[in-house]
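Bug #2210: token dump truncated for prephenate dehydratase?
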Amino acid sequence: MSKTTKRGVTAPEDLIAFQGLPGAYSDLSCRAAYPKMRTLPCASFEDVFAAVREGKAHLAMIPIENSVAGRVADIHHLLPDSGLHIVAEHFQRVNHHLLAPKGATLETIKTVHSHVQALSQCRKLIRELGLKAAVHADTAGAAADIAKKGDITEAAIASSLAGEIYGLVSLKEGIEDAEHNTTRFVIMGREPVDPDPKAGPVVTSFVFRVRSVPAALYKALGGFATNGVNITKLESYMIDGHFTVAQFYADIDGHPDSRMVRLALEELSFFSREVKILGVYAASPFRLQQNGG
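Reproduced locally. Full output below:
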């Protein structure tokens, strides 16, 4: 089934795009959040965005940050110019498996392959077993390569789904350093959504640049404090080669149409060069559980 949007792009409603190969954690997240949708693997994040813009997929599943390894590289630079809107969020518990070809054991493996974030999330086991770490573009790609080689001295850190897809054996599961290891994803689409605040908590995500004047950030954020608006995430990154211009990514509780949020955003705009709303969407049930809701 396809759907024609306001932009005239027709896309299959049951297809969601992600970066990586089949079996990647983004693939797993797509299946967990949208079990009735098919998944579309893409080589890069730019390809994921393009798939949705061009009508090859209805939605995009994009990782933002991990509770252990932090921000996903490049994402904050790509989001503002993606041409898409954040329409939802999803939190995926990451349960890493040490995968290897049949015949391999914990004693035979010498090298472990995976995405840099997965490797950093499993430092304790890698050090414990004295393994050499090798970085790959993604976890599923590492699993696919290990399966193709069939070398019992090499293993991969990836999901159980990747193990099933590529015929690998799990030598050990739950190998992540922290039990809270969770990745936050945002789901993006061509058209924005406008959730009803009365139906439940709402998150607003946006980027902004502060003016190059003393205490500009302090003044820009003052409106959120005086209006009682909770900032749940604030992160800065440089956007020019001179290290003089910083852009900030922020998540706040509330809808832009609510009086307090509107006043806070107005004050932010007064002290900022540019404010761009990336999405207004319903808060994930996971977020509410963590807050005791």
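Output looks complete on our side. The chain has three domains: 2-94+181-189, 97-173, 197-290. Marking as cannot-reproduce; reopen if the truncation happens again.
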